[in-house]
Amino acid sequence: MKIAIVGATGEVGRMMITCLQELNLQLEVLDLYASARSQGELLYYLDQSIAVQELTGKSLTKHYDYVFFSAGGGVAHTFAPAALQSSELIIDNSSAFRQDAAIPLIVPQINADLLLGYQGIVANPNCSTIQMVLPLAILDKEYHLKKVIVSTYQAVSGSGHGGIQTLEKQRLGSSSKGIYPEPIDLNVIPQIGVFLDNGYSSEEEKMRQETLKILARADIAISATTVRVPVMYGHSLSVYAEFERELDLDKAAELLSQAPAIKYHENSFITPLGLGPSNLSHVCRLRRGVDSRSLTFWNVGHNVRIGAAANAVNIMRAHALQAGKIGESDV
């Protein structure tokens, strides 16, 4: 296969390379693109060095089976439509196309069927949405989801490298707020994205809209509060969910423990520091909500892996399997 990664030197771009390596895919072509300041930088795939190329208007005119975009919405809007003229599938990690009705928003374990025979742009959902919707989809199928109230505790790496640098500098004594509206060290900030007219932030609105689109349900009531916390990697979510049907807590635990891409922790919990290189959505502290039709759980995921790069690579894998580009034995 021939693959290109746009934004290859960023946090998510580098992790995309890592996730591809973890599949041990033997690629015919892997081209890496970034801005002019990264041109010539050497990155590695399966011990082979690859020089980063500057992204220009001519970069994506040759054929690729898959082009990953991890360079922001502006770059995606500018270059993704042009890349479609010669390439088959564009997988974009930004929010540029997520709410376009004509473009599938994919978490492969939930809606990979939308990829069958599809050529075009595919949107990769928001990081906190991906890890939450994986367990919710399992429970929705069994009990029919009605309402979700979620509060997030999101790592600074979700802001990109600037978030990591800001926290590191503040821990060394800097008084600069960096990229955040308030200091993040020894603090929490209940704002991710701009505030909208309805009082919600753009991150909170993303979680609502994307969950509805992925689950193909317009009738679920969702309220999110998204909070930035002084953690380097790993988003944590406190999720309360209500359902139309009564649920059996043991059965719900069994369903989650058997689900793909989910790690269920019984009688224990996990923290961001315990994630390591996990590509899974971790669910623990499963318990009753306010009645027999509701429950609450703690949900942790590596925001750069399951929340971004790993899901994007899983989209490619699902499409490639359906299209016969690879076989199960190849990955």
Tell me about this structure.
Strand 1, helix 1 and strand 2 (29-34) form a beta-alpha-beta unit. The strands form 3 sheets. A 6-stranded parallel sheet has the order 5-2-1-6-7-8, with helices on both faces. Strands 10-9-11-14-13-12 form a 6-stranded mixed sheet. Strands 3-4 form a two-stranded antiparallel sheet. The mean pLDDT is 96. With 331 residues, the chain is an alpha/beta fold. The longest helix is centred in the C-terminal third of the chain and has 19 residues, at 305-323. The two termini are 13 Å apart. The protein folds into 2 domains: 2-125 and 308-330, NAD(P)-binding Rossmann-like Domain (Rossmann fold, 3-Layer(aba) Sandwich); 128-303, Dihydrodipicolinate Reductase, domain 2, CATH 3.30.360. It contains 8 helices and 14 strands. Helix 1 packs across helix 8 (305-323), helix 4 runs parallel beside helix 6 (202-215) and helix 4 (127-143) crosses helix 8. 47% of the residues are buried.
End-to-end gap: 13 Å
Question: How many domains comprise the coordinates?
Answer: 2
The CATH architecture designation of the largest domain is 2-Layer Sandwich
Strand neighbour order, sheet with most strands: 5-2-1-6-7-8
> What level of helicity do the residues show?
25-40%
Please report the total strand number as a whole number: 14
CATH class of the largest domain: Alpha Beta
Task: Quote the average pLDDT.
Answer: 96
- CATH homologous superfamily caption of the largest domain: Dihydrodipicolinate Reductase, domain 2
- Based on secondary structure, the structural category is alpha/beta
